[in-house]
Amino acid sequence: MPTTRRRTRRLRADDLTQNMVAFLSDDPSQYANSFCLIENYPFTFRDNSKGWTIEKLLNQHGQRYLAEYVRVNPCRRPSWWWTFQAPGTRRQIGRHGNVTYFESEAAFLHRHGLLSPIEKRHLQAHPDLLKAEKEVIE
User: Fold this and answer.
1) Does residue 5 form part of some domain?
2) Mean pLDDT by 10 residues, the chain (138 residues)
């Protein structure tokens, strides 16, 4: 029995706007003034005429940009990963006055088994990456 195949056009990297590349690269300094996320999910880009959503953007280009980010920043993840793909939140370790301590990104990734072999070797060479990170609340 014949089946009907629906062709979907795979979007190329050059279909991305400057804002989309800035978002994927986790580089807010590169955002053009027209960047805006609409409040409801799925998010969309206001400067977008091709119907991009954050979900579509991450599905088609997220892994490539994530790999590049991790190559440059081992044992860390871009902010969009923490918002849209992380399997949870980092644990709060403690609090002292206005300072809250959280497990480090490296500790979270290690605890969830999300470090690549290269990142594991990097972590062995830099165990200080497992130290808690502090956030000052003013």
Assistant:
1) no
2) 53 67 81 48 55 83 96 95 94 93 97 97 97 87
Query: What pTM, to 2 d.p., does this model score?
Result: 0.77
Q: Edge-to-edge strand order for the sheet containing 133-136?
A: 92-96, 99-102, 133-136
Domain hosting residue 70, numbered range? 16-74
Residues 110 and 62 in one domain: no
- Do 22 and 66 reside in the same domain of the chain? yes
The amino acid present at 22, given as its one-letter code, is A
CA distance 46 to 100: 35
* The pLDDT of residue 14: 60
